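thread: overnight batch results

M.L. [08:02]
morning all. the overnight job finished for the chain we discussed friday. pasting input first so we're all looking at the same thing
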Amino acid sequence: MSVTKSLEARYYIDSDIYAAEMAGLFARTWQFGCHASEIPQTGDYVTFEIAGESLFAIRGRDGEVRVFYNVCQHRAHELAQGKGTTRVVVCPYHAWTYELTGELRAGPNIKSVPGFDRATVCLTEVRCEDFNGFLFVNLDAQAAPMEEWYPGVRGELAEYVPQIQDLAPLEWVEIDEKCNWKVSVENYSECYHCSLNHPTFASGVVKPETYDISKAGGYVLKHTTECQAVEQMSYPIDMSVPHAGEYRSFFLWPMFSFQVYPGNLLNTYHWRPGGVGDCTVWRGWFSVGGEEDAVVRQMAVQDRETTVEEDIHLVESVQRGLGSRGYVPGPLVVDPGCGVNSEHSIKALQQWMREAVDGV
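M.L. [08:03]
and the structure it wrote out:
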């Protein structure tokens, strides 16, 4: 049986491959946009960028959230900046005005234009799904729904975080990394390096010998492990709550992950590529109503000062190494028995990476 070798360096350092991902992969996959709690009331909106496109999500009078390309249908001026609340969407350039559902409502002097049909003008809408309060978008109108991409995750996540519908962001931690986004995603998707490089996580949160990552159907990598003995935990947990003694992570290809720390603490990763050799990792920490929570705040600080800081140095070193003439892709450690010291998850992940670029 032949061994599986890691991806060639070109997948991480070639600007043409990155451009192809921007035009293809990022535009045809489900990407995190914002959290529903950011736009709770009618007319609330927030802007964000996906695959190089500026978008905005806005809550309509019917309570539904819609996502539109952030561009006026008149002369292409951007419609919104940042976040806020509005009764109607007004273009700052010529004051063309749109309903919260995207239809053109009015514009200066448009009634004097022969044959002008206001009903034919509408903002361009983007596919959006609410995934337990997390709003994902897909620029591909023909894309399969999230349940087909990530079967069962929505329900299982709600089991491990029973209060998930009441959560809101307590803190966002923004981390800039000088590496290709795939280097950072790969680092996240194995724990072969954990015991050596993440002593706090490995001794004060999870029990490494029970750690495993499995391909869980669709485009999901599921991390599972037990927590450390309660007296060794780096933060307090209530073991009377179902699943409190377990850790679960659901990585949703290509660039988002839900993590449930022991004690049912929800946190998230989402990656934002900034160039072939740059990415930003957003770490979200959540509490009920976004209200102050001492344990969640403690874990956000601990995570930033330990695991996150440790990973920055690892991924940036890998990116430098990928540019070396001396790098020859080596074999992955794919243990048939899986477990913490196996890279079977990287094998699956790199196959998705190949398919996204090469189609095979």
